[in-house]
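User: structure tokens for PIG-L family deacetylase, please.
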Amino acid sequence: MIKPTAMSGGPAQIWNSAAQLAQVPHVELSTLIPPGARVVVVAPHPGDEVVACGGLLQLLSSLDYPLQLISVTDGSASHPGSSLWPPKRLSVFRAQESAEALRRLGMPLHSLKWLRGGFADSALAVREQQLSQFIARYLQTGDVVLSTWRTDGNDDHDAVGRAAASACALMGVRLLEMPIWAWHWPARDATRIPWSRARKIHLETRQVARKRHAAYAYASQLAGDPQICLAPMLPPVLLERMRDPYEIVFV
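Assistant: Done. Predicted tokens:
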């Protein structure tokens, strides 16, 4: 996994230095996603849906949009070589973290349609065609799909993005892509972002606060493993970025 290294005052990253961010047009939710459309969120790992679109999920839920969440993997490979966080522990623990995170977002867990794909974490590229078929199986006419950007810079994120794009093309439904790690590329790489496709969704202060609170439910990702010099998967710089009063998708 490509992880950001810059902290406040460290090397400039796209999220806190790109001049293009101020030029991204705001869009009303009803323009982006027609009222009544079912929204399918495809998350490579537990927590990706919170980091990428935790605010948007709150908006959709408050407006009674039908939601389908697909967690492609269980995230059990997030701490390779760790005896503190072995895959067997993570496979159980991360599902519990996700449930708590969604609760903190205010999602109706009793009625939320939540599908776990069971694909192997960190090995999605080799099963991309199968993953695309899997996603397509759960799509319906009129859906809008939210998935990770195809060139986000993480192998699993990229594979899910490509698989979702293929599935959406097959089923004739709209795809919106969400960058996650790309915002933490060096500032010099800002020209690689498809700014003409970017749209900004405004978030209220309470929605930003809830999103950050939900991210803190992922205790396993906030703690690395000092014994093997493994840094947290959710480092402070990523949590700092989540203070932004908007989310961005690529149309």
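User: Anything notable?

Assistant: Residues 1-8 have pLDDT under 50 and may be disordered.
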